[in-house]
Design brief:
- With about 375 residues, chain A is of the alpha+beta class.
- Chain A contains eight helices and 21 strands.
- A six-stranded mixed β-sheet of chain A has the order 6-7-8-3-9-10, with helices on both faces. Chain A has a five-stranded antiparallel β-sheet with strand order 16-20-17-18-19, with no helix packed on it. In chain A, strands 2-1-4-5 form a four-stranded antiparallel β-sheet, with helices on one face.
- Chain A is elongated.
- The two termini of chain A are about 35 Å apart.
- Chain B has about 280 residues and is mainly α.
- Chain B has one domain: MetI-like (MetI-like fold, Orthogonal Bundle).
- Helices cover about 75% and strands about 5% of the residues of chain B.
- In chain B, helix 5 packs parallel to helix 10 and helix 7 packs across helix 9.
- The chains are: A alpha+beta (about 375), B mainly alpha (about 280).
- At the A-B interface, strand 6 and helix 2 of A face helix 8 and helix 9 of B.
Amino acid sequence: MSPASVILRGLRKSLGGQEVVKGIDLDIHPGEFFSLLGPSGCGKSTTLRLIAGFESPAAGEIHINGRPTHATPAYVHDINLVFQNYALFPHLTVHQNIAFGLEMQQVPPAEAARRVEEILALVRLSGYGPRLPRELSGGQQQRVALARALVTRPSIVLLDEPLGALDLKLRKEMQFELKNLQSTLGLTFIYVTHDQEEALTMSDRIAVMHQGRILQTGTPGEIYEKPASRFVAGFIGESNFLEGRVVSRSAQSLHFEASGLTIQVRPENAASPGGGSLLTIRPEKIWIGRSPAPDLENVFPGHITDSLYYGTHTLFLVALDRSSLTLQVRRQNHKENHFRKGDAVCIGWPGESAWLLDGTDCHD
Amino acid sequence: MTDASKGFRLLAAPLAFLALFFAAPLALVLAASLAARGQPLDWAFSLGAYQRMLDPLFAGVFLRSAALAAAATLTCLLLGFPLAYFIVRQPPPRRRLLYFLVLIPLTANSLVLTYSWITILRPQGFLDLALQSLGWFGPGPFVLLYTPAAVFLGLTYWYLPFMVYPIYASLEKVDFTLSAAAADLGATRRQTFLRIILPLSTPGILAGSMLVFIQCLCAFVVPDMLGGSKTLMIGSLIQQRFLTLPQDWPLGAAISITLLALIGAAVFLTLRLDRSPASPR
């Protein structure tokens, strides 16, 4: 693999007497769409500001394209930041806003004008050059902010919740556009978001942050399928959590006991080799039917206590007959999957669908 | 009752007040300026006062007033902008405190403040004594009192808050992530200031300069007490025409009206100039 374009080692930062970044180690590779994902206050934005050079770290190292920048937090030419509120200059036109960075780099005006037009076409805003930012919609302002960050051809673009102010439909459109731009231009994007769906759909890799630390780094698939802790499993998507313990193990399976149920789990589906005390099952991985399916390792009878209709799918709450547990089950809407409250059903899942965790989250 | 008539009822009191205490005296001054010279007033129509105003003797007073007002305005701007900028960038509790500190001179009695300036600037005053103790060896005492410099200092001191507040109000609306954005795009601090902060605070700069210049131009107490008879300014000139010999009420009124017209024109021009996107519409 090519050398990382951003390397963070033992990064720490306090704001207002409180440590908000508590030792971050990261390697972000060139051309990667990397997301820092976490709830607000987890330190993701501060980490981004440290990389951008707006803040200097209390401890640790930052290397950008092979150069250490933690000691001299000057604004690195090779990095541009897209601000959460866009930070467009209100008194300058769209064209002047985008040309600002080129002007600061003393690019000749003719070339600057050409490059501005080029980038305007790229973000589908050709012809909007003479307008003022306030004459544009939120989505258009967002694209101007992006164009302004891209036009100086940085190798790394930092994005601080850039879609946070847009409505849902526009946000989805922009997710596609951002991802396309990033892969077409071959840039490194470091993307801060609290929206787990946004991170899953766009990122090559994600670092899940909580309380100033990185809990897990991996591809969206790894983070979703093999969460390292209860926090990650709960923050990314929905999950059923079953507390219990491993009662026996063989080469093929572990037996996990939770609230009177014995559940078979594949040994390779345990976060640690010893097993764990918390079983997680995604609602969409649970099969549901009127009679038991013969080929599933884990099948339990129960009845529907509630259902939520989502259009494409329905979320059922199923209380298990032999246990005090109620599980969430998500099914595509289909004629055979039409159950009512009170219906007796069978639910089940294969051994590889559950994921076994330590159960204790190792952070303070 | 319609909303419009409700609105008019609410307006009735202030309108009556303005008509009685603002428009009527103004009309009286205008009428006086068009009266013939008399003892003290002869209500016969005449443009004589406006002709007497063009006396070269008064041109010097006008020019001196304009020059001192301009100098004081410029100095207030140079002092006031950094001050306003500094205050805006403070954390909120300290910002409020500093904001009110700037207000203090406005709350104090003007005569007391002017007398305290006299004690600073007079011979054997604080300034003189301080310079002497530092080894001032000029010919005689260092005295600013009754010079244009004293008027300039007084005006600058007096009207600085009127510069600070509009600029503060403008800067307060500036989103300072814009400086971060400019810096991120490679702008130096100087470039960020000239290209981003300064244009966005133009409305405040124009409003503040206008307020200070107009008030300096028309000032009476400060020039009269610190400038004396040697540094006559428009305000004192008008006052003298009404109260000291040779009295000439029409001339005093004509100067007042002319000043008002000039200021009106200046305000109008400034408003026309201030078409920057940062200004409210």
